[in-house]
Structures are given as C-alpha cells and as structure tokens.
Amino acid sequence: MFSNFKKLNRREFLKLTGVGIAGTLLGGTAMPLIQRLKQPQADVTILKESSYSNNLVNSIRKGISNYPHVLQKVKGGRVVLKPNMVDHYPGHPINTDPAMIAGAISAFRQLGAREVVVAEGPGHNRDVEMLLSQTGIDGVLRDEKVKFIDLNLDSISPVKITSNYTGLSQFFFPHTILNADLVVSMPKLKTHHWAGATLSLKNLFGTIPGVKYGWPKNFLHWYGISESIADIASTIQPGFAIVDGIVGMEGDGPLHGTPIHSGVIVMGDNLTAVDSTAARIMGFYPEQIQHMSMMIPYGGTVNKALIQQLGEPLFTMPEKFKVLPHSTYVTKKPSLWEQALISGW
What angle do CA 116, 122, 125 make, to 5 degrees? Predict the structure, then answer.
C-alpha cells in the first residue's frame, strides 16, 4: 500500500485523499480537517480615517465598543498597549503613529480602565530612550502621564508554550504582559520581507525580552519566524488588536519601505481574523501567510466567510501594497483546493 503512495506526486495524492494534508502549506505542520472547520465566527471592525489629526479617540472608542466582553476586561482593569516601535528612519512609517497611541490611551481610559501603560521591547534599536524621543512617543507619554515599560528589561517568568511549533517547551515573558487584564497589539499596517506582513500577530515579537533572548532576538529566527509568531500568540493570547493603517508601509518592509496612505483602522478581538482582514485590505491572501494559518487550531479565523465586517465593508478598500520580488507569494490567489486545505470552504 505505502509503495503505491510513493509513486504518486503530491497533487495526485491530495486528490485521492479528499481531505488532504496541509503539512507543506503549514511549514510541515499538518492540520486536521476538524480543526479547520472549528474556526470561530469573528467580528472585525474597519474604520475609515483620513488623517492622524482627526478625532481618533472617538473612532477607537467606537470600535472597542463593538466587543462587550473586551469592555468587561477594560473596566477597572490594567490595559497594556503594545505598539510597533522598532527603529527610526525619517520618511519611513516604521512605527505606530503617536497619535494612534494617544487616541487609544484616552479611549481606554474613557471606557473605564483603571490603568493604561505602554510597553514595547524593540528588537532592532537597543537605545529605547532615544527611540521614544525620535518617534515622538515620549511626548504622548508625558502629555497623557502614562508609564512606559521596556519589555526587554522587565522581570520575566517562564510559561509553557501552547502551540509549540518551535519545538521549545517554554518562553520567558515579561510580567507586564503576564499580569495585564488586557494586552492590546497596536501594529503598523506594513509589509515584512520575511513574514509577509507586519500586523498584530507579528507585532508580538516585541513581547519577547531581549535580556533573555538578546538583540535582535535572532534566537527566535533560528527556530522559525512563523513558528515563533504562532507560539507567542497562542501562549499569551492578547485580547485585542488595533492596526494603524492610516499611513502604512509597502515595498521593503518592515524598515525600508515607502509610505502608502490607506486611511483605515482595523480592530478586533480575534487577532488572526484582524490580520487576515488587514492582509486583504493590502491586496494579500492571508492563506499564503504561514503564521496566520498556524493559528487556526488555536482559535484563529482566516476563513473570510466566518469574519463579519463591522464598520466599512472590505470591498471598499482598494489598496494593493507593493511587495519585494521574493514576497509576491502573498499576492498569489490560492486555488479553491488550497483554500479548503488551509481554512475550509
């Protein structure tokens, strides 16, 4: 029997089995059909915002209000905002805009948060004080009287990895993340030359402490970027995402790309669904982005049919981000068979 299977190529084998094996598509990790069919219904909010000078507080508060169970965590709770803060190259929209951070601080306070802190562990630039100053985020922290915590230097504890795609038994995480009532990932809408896109899941790389894993956290690269992203996200399970897409980055992201005005904020409590929606806004197919598919067995939703769009409908977002030649796979439409293998019909 097995000798006969060896004579079949992959396409023929998948046709014969009917269910197929998603191992090749998921970086060697097979995903049972039952797990793909169990993707939960997810709500993702898309809000149009043309400028950072607009009243972002109202927009962000409006978006958060679509998620009653998130509001319950916010009221009287400690909210940790984890922005995308990597480095500073003038003319390149690398980081979450300070206006977005300020808007989120005020919105969560107005919704009843006991405390709001901003926390990040940059993996590229080790001089955090200089980076805060260059990005203008320090001004927001002063104006809003908000504490900033460098996750690279925070106290840490080991946590057993939930998904364990990397094959590691545990990650060390900062106490600021572990003790939060709500962790909010606030990435920039931008391309990434290795991961396909930098969105709310990839943004969680900054929760890994440099004091334990070094700079630029190449330890995680050695065990696989997509694998590490999925392991981090499935383990700490952040409760919300706010994607800064007012001005995004296309081309050679995450550091050297060029600005693209997208005019959107994307929000939700299922980070995989948020990222899948944001990827579609960028003109990408989330089924082609490995770490998003890896999250499906752990509560992630990629299947478009299971994502309810709140606010602006997805089809009104016409942007198509440019990518580097080796990243064009994210713009390749998967076949119906590939879609079924990854996220169900």
Answer: 135
Cβ neighbour number for residue 116 with a 10 Å cutoff: 24
Query: What letter represents residue 73's amino acid?
Result: K
pTM of the model: 0.89
Between CA 191 and CA 188 the distance in angstroms is 9
The one-character DSSP state at 120 is E
Measured CA to CA in angstroms, residue 7 lies from 1, 18, 25 at distances of 11, 18, 21
Token pair belonging to 299: 């509560």
Q: Mention every residue, 6+ apart, whose C-beta is less than 8 A from residue 102.
A: 56, 57, 140, 143, 144
Query: Within a domain: residue 34?
Result: no
245 domain-assigned: yes
Two tokens, residue 281: 């806004």
The Cα–Cα gap between 191 and 284 comes to: 10
According to DSSP, the residues that pair with 258 across neighbouring strands are 250
> 335 CB contacts (<8 Å, ≥6 apart)?
none
What is the extent of the structural domain holding 337? Answer: 43-343
The whole-number pLDDT of residue 5 equals 29
For residue 6, tell me if it sits in a domain.
Answer: no
What is the predicted pLDDT for the residue at 125? 79
Condensed to tens digits (0 to 9), the pLDDT of residues 5-23 reads: 233 344 433 333 333 333 4
Spatial CA neighbour of 307 closest among 31, 33, 39: 39
Q: State the CB neighbour count (10 A cutoff) for residue 279.
A: 24
Q: From residue 125, give the alpha-carbon distance in Å to each of 179, 258, 313.
A: 26, 20, 37
pLDDT tens sequence across 114-160: 999 999 999 877 799 999 999 999 999 999 999 999 999 999 999 99
